[in-house]
Amino acid sequence: MHWLVLLSFAALLAGEEPQDPPSARIAAWPIGIFGTVVDVNFDPLPGVSVELRSVDSGHTHTKVTDSLGRYRFECLADGEYTLRFHLEGLLEAETRLQYRYPEALRFSQVLNLKGGGDLIGEDLLIVGVFDRVTGAPVPGAAVKIGQAEGVTDKCGRTWGASSASRVQIRISASGYEAMELTVDRQSDRRQFVRIELEWEY
């Protein structure tokens, strides 16, 4: 850090606009393994224990997610790792990944309530919200799928887990008319529902 400060100071003395050298810009990249832990409603989960264990050496790094559900591991050796998530009252999750410096691996995890079963095996209802005129996705739309509440991402999608044969969906978004509909569940575990909103006049 000191050489960066001295470099900027030297540029000021020379009457030039200080600029970051290429190496400084590269160092700003988020090198390591990092991500966010959320619940099934995409709300961040603080206080989750995240354990990263080297398969080769057995060495273990442990972090706890912050108030926004974020974690980060840095200064890692090349190799294979297991990444484990744990929070009391929620299902534990574990995955295996390969890391090679200077990669930046983002891995986000959804933790489900205990007794709810494996998340991948849940009956997922995926909702896509789009503009009826342009066909463009509508990000930031508030969606309620049964009792689960969520917000659509930049692709206009969100989802909820439900084993009910009929599910009520409510959608509201700024500039659009609110919509409410009931969907008959199919036998597929992952069912996609496309919803098109009309502009509000």
Please describe the structure with a list of short key phrases separated by commas or semicolons:
single chain, 201 residues, mainly beta, four-stranded mixed β-sheet, four-stranded antiparallel β-sheet, 2 helices, 15 strands, 9% helix, elongated, disordered N terminus
What does this structure look like?
The chain is mainly β. Helix content is 9%, strand content 42%. It has two helices and 15 strands. Strands 1, 4, 7 and 8 form a four-stranded mixed beta sheet that branches. A four-stranded antiparallel beta sheet has the order 3-2-5-6, with no helix packed on it. The chain has a four-stranded antiparallel beta sheet with strand order 11-10-13-14, with no helix packed on it. A hairpin with a 5-residue loop joins strand 2 (49-54) and strand 3 (60-64). The chain starts with a helix and ends with a strand. Mean pLDDT is 77; it is low at 1-18, 20-29 and 115-121.
Low confidence ranges: 1-18, 20-29, 115-121
Instruction: Give a count of the beta strands, DSSP E runs of length 2 or more.
Output: 15
Evaluate the radius of gyration. Answer: 22 Å
* Average pLDDT over all residues: 77
Q: How would you sum up the global shape?
A: elongated
Q: Report the major sheet.
A: 4 strands, mixed
- Tell me the β content: 35-45%
Number of H/I helices? 2
Outline of this structure?
The protein is mostly beta strands and 201 residues long. 9% of the residues lie in helices and 42% in strands. The protein is elongated.
Topology:
Elements: H1 2-13, H2 22-27, E1 32-38, E2 49-54, E3 60-64, E4 70-73, E5 79-86, E6 93-99, E7 104-106, E8 109-110, E9 124-131, E10 142-145, E11 148-151, E12 157-161, E13 166-172, E14 179-184, E15 190-197
Parallel strand pairs: 1-7, 1-8, 9-15
Antiparallel strand pairs: 1-4, 2-3, 2-5, 5-6, 9-12, 10-11, 10-13, 13-14
